[in-house]
Amino acid sequence: MKKSILFAFFALIFSVSSAQTPLTVAVDFTADDVEGNTHHLFEYLDAGKYVVLDFYFTTCTSCQGATPTINQSYMDFGCNTNNVIFIGINNGNSISEVLAYEATYGATYPSIAGLSGGTAITDDYGVSAFPTIIMIAPNHDIIEQDIWPVDPLTDVVEGHGGILSPCGSTVFTADFVGIPTVIMAGGSVDFSDNTQNGTPISWTWSFPGGVPATSIVQNPTGIVYANPGSYNVTLTVSDGTQTSTTTKNLYITVVDPNNAPEADFIANYTVVQVTNAVNFYNLSTGYYDSLLWQFPGGLPTESSIANPTGIIYNTIGEYDATLILYSPLGNDTLIKPLYIQVIDASFADTLSADFSTVGGRLIVQGWSVGFEDLSIGYPSSWQWEFQGGTPATSSIQNPQNITYSTPGIYDVKLIISNGLSTDTLFKDDYIVVTTEPWPDPDGYCEDTVTNIRSNERPLTFRHLTPSKWGYFPGHNEYLVKAYAEKFTFYTYTNVHGLIVPVVKAYGASSTAKVRFTVWDVDANGKPGAEIEKKDVFINTFTPYFYHVVMFDHPAPVNGQFFIGYQIYYNNPADTFVVYMSPNRGVGGNNSLYVKKGANWITPSALLNDTLNTSLAIRVLGCLYNELPAINLDESLTIYPNPTNGKTYLQIDENVVLQYFESYIFDISGRMLAQPVSKEGNGLYSIDLNNVAPGIYFVTVIANQEKTTRKVVVY
């Protein structure tokens, strides 16, 4: 019987021998075997050794039958200690599956699991029939493309220069196997004696961490391991005249059942010009023993190494990227739809720079931070500057492992360009580095911040009489509904409260109130949606005192935000007034906006004069290490799709949504000016009534996650 052929349209066993690799010269590889030992093919060859590769998969009956012969030849030539190296190259199976195969069919030579690199090596050698056994000479030539039948394997290898030097042929050696070697806490392992070159009559087993901890039977079963960890196993055997002891260190791995794998990754570029390459970085957590990447549109289309590099995209388009983790605790898959955007080298459009960290911004000295580009548009170049970081600059899209060695608070700068448009974003005081883990569970809480300059004293307000009744900033004849102060402060992730310098406070009734508010920033740089609010009765304030107003829930902010208050006009009239800075005059900085009717305008536009000012309210805020994680690919629903009018973006109601942005692009990558409106909790809409029929792409950024979805307009 010859070998199994892996094709989708047939499977058979045939009896003719033919070369199963078309190659005549070896292809290099570096991979770890199922025991964690690294094998570098060219290092073996360049050291003057011959290498025999056994290509197989675990359910292949021909492979199972050939394994004892291959193992004997492995022993005949010194068990990889002399001038011949034997390595099994598995196709398609996990580490745990290969370990079970070795135990069942007596394979003691090292083997590389398919999902740990074996499948990729199989593809590189063009092998499609199994088993295929090839031999490579030290000069890198493949001198045997397919050794079959396998029975004369030792003779074939010796004929090419292999030196017979049997390993352990006369040495009585304790050996054993355990199945499985990776279990969940509370699981059990069965052990089998596999002693070489002798017949034991007594056995003494030691199972640290196991129950029972010892045994004297030949093949103990049901050894239970209750606690997570890695454990040694020792076997001592005797045949009455000889004794041998073998310890396999960290042989049994016991996994916490709560440590299930969670797939996550990032690419160094998500926007690339056609024919350019992308590197992927595995950020997964939890326990897994192997993984598989899938890159539709890329070359190669799959990889089983931890951090695949050099994935080339030759065709313009938008492509998914997938990472699958294999684990005894259950597999986990992450698909990032339309994650890689491949553009024409000549394409350029308007850009808007943005970025965030991968993980926390509150770190301990010596720790590293990764950065993710969240810019809108299609940049083709990136220039980062990391004050206090090593390296201090980077030109890749998503730089990782920026190390901060000295405590302090540091700025980060990003410049993006596509040849036609350039944009710069500077986040000052963005990375906070401490000498030890920050002890406050509420995060790093900076001193209060304000837009009032140190020399702007005394603070002031305006009494508008005799031309108008009332005060500015407060209740007045203009019927101003709200006052909002714009802040640009990247240290905070949350605003907890405000310190309000009250000038006047009179409520005509006991229920008269003022609503303190945090707003986000809309597309025009003015107050947008309300993030958090707090109602306070006016008569609880004492004039000419600073009052602390704490929100019931911290308001999440993202570098730019507005704080202020909304007032109401009752009859009889209420009065509430807050201090502001002195007038900075023509050309001076203004950070205050007032709401008259439905519009936000500047004080000078309201009063028809030159008032440029800032509210004297101080902000209380903190830096938390990261925003709540969102799996956007599971949490985001877009409907109706296709659409001929409004389309809605719905974030799952169970998600803690602290930051949201959305943009729409046509099929050429140009951003449309369609506004995104907030309809409710986690619900947003885009009006596409006046958009030409066609295919469009909606990019959503929520908390620190980014995804792109296709929308069809008809």
How would you describe this protein?
This protein is mostly beta strands. It has 6 domains: 3-159, Glutaredoxin (3-Layer(aba) Sandwich); 176-255, Immunoglobulin-like (Sandwich); 265-343, Immunoglobulins (Immunoglobulin-like), CATH 2.60.40; 355-434, Sandwich (Immunoglobulin-like), CATH 2.60.40; 462-622; 632-713, Sandwich (Immunoglobulin-like), CATH 2.60.40. It contains 7 helices and 57 strands. The protein is elongated, with a radius of gyration of 34 Å.
- Unreliable spans are 1-19
Given helix and strand content, the structural type is mainly beta
Q: What sort of overall outline do the alpha carbons produce when their principal axes are compared?
A: elongated
Q: How many helix segments?
A: 7
Q: Percent of residues in helical segments? A: under 10%
Count of domains: 6
Mean pLDDT reading: 87
Estimated radius of gyration: 34 Å
Query: Approximately how much beta-strand content do the residues carry?
Result: 35-45%
The count of strands amounts to 57
Major β-sheet profile = 6 strands, antiparallel
The end-to-end span amounts to 60 Å
Major β-sheet strand ordering: 44-43-46-41-48-49
